[in-house]
Design brief:
It contains 13 helices and no strands. The protein has 274 residues and is an all-alpha fold. The protein has a domain at 41-139: Tetratricopeptide repeat domain (Serine Threonine Protein Phosphatase 5, Tetratricopeptide repeat, Alpha Horseshoe). Helix 12 runs antiparallel to helix 13. It holds the Pfam family RMD1-3.
């Protein structure tokens, strides 16, 4: 027996409505499942952008705050981790309170280690780890300083394997060679114990100069490169070249968070140069 047309129409409408309801529910469920992931991605991207703006504006504390929030939102974000390490080192470098400085360097080292764990095939993470550990070493006593030296060297060399002209890694190795050459006899004996004679023997003023000059070539007009090159020249007994490098540092544009302090140091050290 044929169903009346209006009954068929009602049943068809119900089926269509049910299908629409199920389809809408499926879409809504998908949106609920994927929305948090999209929102997190957008949030991390926004936080990184905000951190970058603060970093360019030379406000490392604000930059670090944004980067750390990005790390909290996405704990394995390689970019957020190495940028957090960078800003923490910048903040620690001229921090007068020893405990605060030590804490900042510890945070920087932790972020850098996590960055390398997240992506060991990019130079920036290795450089930031070398930088963080190196700053920790420079703030330590001579005996402790030597303990950090091998890791600093290894991480900087790894960064150069991945990026042969990385200016920061070149700079770190220039400073590393200079610091080894500046060791006293007692500290050198300790260094030989921890580093071994071969590694210790690889350091020289010539290598310090070579790496620092390469850093300047790789990244011209970077005040800190010129400043540390001047110091290497000075301590290697090359006074005229030191004077020129100090003057280059004073001419370099202010770009980084600590460039005001670097420029002041360059001016003071140039005046003391004989």
């Amino acid at each position: 027996m044929m169903q009346p047309t209006y009954i068929l129409a009602v049943r068809t409408a119900r089926r269509w409505a049910l299908g629409l309801t199920v389809g809408a529910a499926s879409v809504a469920l998908s949106a609920l499942l994927f929305a948090p992931r999209v929102l997190v991605a957008q949030s991390v991207s926004d936080l990184l952008s905000a951190g970058d703006r603060e970093s360019v504006a030379r406000r490392p504390s604000a930059a670090l705050g944004n980067y750390e929030r990005a790390v909290k939102a996405e704990p394995t974000s390689y970019v957020a981790l190495w940028k957090s390490a960078r800003e923490a080192v910048d903040l620690g470098e001229f921090e007068k309170n020893p405990e605060t400085r030590t804490g900042l360097y510890a945070r920087a080292t932790d972020y850098a280690r996590r960055a390398v764990a997240a992506n060991g095939n990019d130079a920036e993470g290795h450089f930031q780890l070398a930088r963080a550990v190196g700053r920790t070493a420079l703030a330590a006593n001579p005996r402790e300083r030597v303990k950090y030296a091998l890791e600093v060297r290894d991480e900087a060399l790894r960064a150069l394997q991945l990026h042969p002209k990385h200016p920061g890694a070149l700079h770190v190795l220039g400073v590393w060679n200079a610091e080894v050459m500046r060791l006293s006899g007692f500290s050198r004996a300790i260094a030989k114990t921890f580093l071994g004679g071969q590694v210790l023997g690889s350091a020289s003023w010539a290598e310090a100069v070579r790496y620092m000059e390469l850093a300047v070539v790789a990244e011209p007009n970077r005040l800190v490169h010129d400043l540390d090159l001047a110091r290497v020249y000075r301590d290697a007994g090359r006074r005229n070249e030191a004077r020129s490098a100090y003057q280059a540092a004073l001419r370099a544009p202010i770009q980084d968070a600590n460039d005001d302090q670097y420029r002041k140091l360059a001016d003071e050290e140039l005046k003391k140069l004989k």
